[in-house]
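Re: magnesium ion structure - here you go.
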Amino acid sequence: MKNTVVVGAQWGDEGKAKITDLLAQKADMIIRYQGGCNAGHTVVYKGETFKLHLVPSGILYENKICFIGAGTVILPESFEQETNELKSRGVDLSNLKLSPLATITMPYNTDVDGWAEDTVKKGKIGSTRKGIGQTYTDKMARCAFKVGDLINEETLLEKTDIILPLKNKILKEVYGLKEYSKEELLELFKKYKKIFEPYICENWQEMLRTNKDKTILFEGAQGVMLDIDYGTYPFVTSSNPIGGGASTGSGYGPAMIDEVIGVTKAYITRVGEGPFVTELSDETGDKIREVGHEYGTTTGRPRRCGWFDSVIARYAALVSGLTSIALTKIDVFDDFDEIKICTAYRDNLNGKIYKDYPTNVFMHKYLEPIYETHAGWKSDISNIRTYEDLPENCKKYLKRIEELTGTPISIISVGPDREQTIFVN
Ligand code: GDP
Ligand code: IMO
Ligand code: MG
């Protein structure tokens, strides 16, 4: 296998973890490059379900290095809970490595995220309340604590004296929220050090250099449409899930990347607020949700469901540089009479037709999807393991997606389990 990035090509929850776990068999090192515990990644192996948030979805194999890179943000309590649960289920974490450059989510980051979710009415994001946006804001504003700071007490004292007065001023005067004392923070840092110490990879430069010629798999969280630069801004997350993010977030340069696989469902979903042109607020949307078990892995929220949107898939292929698509959850359509694909948008203000994604999302309320209808295959495909054995109507649907996106499908997923996969030659 070549060095490969796995990215979400929609609004997240495309089944990235299943594909990462699958490809991890042939990788030596798996690197999670952005996002935090807002991610909910489900791996099903031998009937057992693992829900991962920060730990790379390659952890179920022995002897693979799983590295959480500099582009990530880490909520200590969530990391502690996740690693404890994995350990209690017998998963070996001796190869789990955490970059000292990853950013720590502080309690005031989650406080402000929660405040915004509870207070803001117009323009609310519908975040996961994990402090993600606030942590990345602090990182960009150059007032964040890094995992590596925990190793050095002098640095912690120095940084606390610089950062805390500023944070307290904002917490009090802007948000009217609880301020933190220096002692409180220093106590927290002791706790965080205990949580992170077994995993902090101080020799990460040596590790990256040693593994440069091995097979690297880069695991994205969220999806292209949640990307801070290319997504449905401002209804996005605060990092770069796109293929390019793999480089900044991992520490390996772009020349290390050979392939970018975009994971996309046979339909599309979204959790949280924001525009969604092919959303189905009817019985068909409910049927997709129920058959596809479309409820958030992290927050349990029902996911909004809609038909496959090829305008988005084509856009994702462009801005993420997709070399192929992994199409998941096509089995969800086994009992559907017909299946629709959105091929373009019509602007009801001026009749304009869009095949390229219109990036001003505040005007999306005037957009209407243009659909073509495909006949369903009305049979169970979850046990099929070769492309040739798929029903003709299913093959036609897949071919049409390739045509519309200009991107070949390399993997077809027909169920949550590792085995329920078809590799297309
Ligand atoms: P991620 O965030 O992209 O890793 O995706 P999630 O884990 O949040 O959501 C995907 C859900 O679909 C999980 O419950 C997976 O177990 C499940 N899943 C993945 N691939 C398939 C598939 O091909 N068919 C079905 N029925 N379920 C799948
Ligand atoms: P995975 O990796 C789906 C959404 C939230 C919200 C927006 C911003 O499992 O695909 P944030 O907490 O990041 O500030 O929320 O992004 N969101 C996700 N939606 N899957 C995810 O991750 C998501 N991570 C964040 O619902 O709309
Ligand atoms: Mg998810």
